[in-house]
Specification:
The chain is an alpha/beta fold. Helix content is 36%, strand content 20%. It has helices at 3-10, 34-37, 54-62, 78-87, 98-107; strands at 13-16, 27-30, 45-49, 67-70, 90-93, 111-112. α3 (54-62) packs parallel to α4. The chain starts with a helix and ends with a strand. The relative contact order is 0.26.
């Protein structure tokens, strides 16, 4: 599944993508605790979170995560967007709950990390 397909499926707003639209996403992980994210194998993974602060972008950078989706209507701040641009991390936002997003992505064929 590509980033563009994820955005269409979830009616998500793409905030920053910098050439990531056609990159493949094979796995997803949902968490609001960034300490849980740091211990994952994160290649080709979408991070789904309702936590909207700079820590999310910094965690994604440290974990080599290229795709972050904010759920529950959470919005990235200008500082978060600037850091995501600097780190080449795509950011999406949607209004749906984390539960609904995870279900829709799983149903569409995206695999969990474990």
């Amino acid at each position: 599944m590509t980033l563009k397909e994820v955005a269409v499926l979830l009616n998500a707003r793409i905030i920053h993508e910098d050439g990531h639209l056609d990159k493949v996403i094979r796995h997803a992980f949902a968490a609001d605790l960034m300490s849980d994210v740091l211990r994952l194998d994160t290649s080709e993974m979408l991070l789904i979170t309702g936590l909207a602060n700079l820590q999310v972008i910094r965690t994604a950078e440290m974990s080599d995560i290229c795709f972050v989706l904010f759920v529950r209507g959470k919005q990235a701040s200008p500082d978060m967007i600037d850091l995501a641009k600097e780190c080449n991390i795509a950011i999406l936002q949607c209004k749906q709950s984390m539960f609904k997003v995870c279900g829709e992505l799983y149903k569409a064929g995206l695999e969990p990390i474990y």
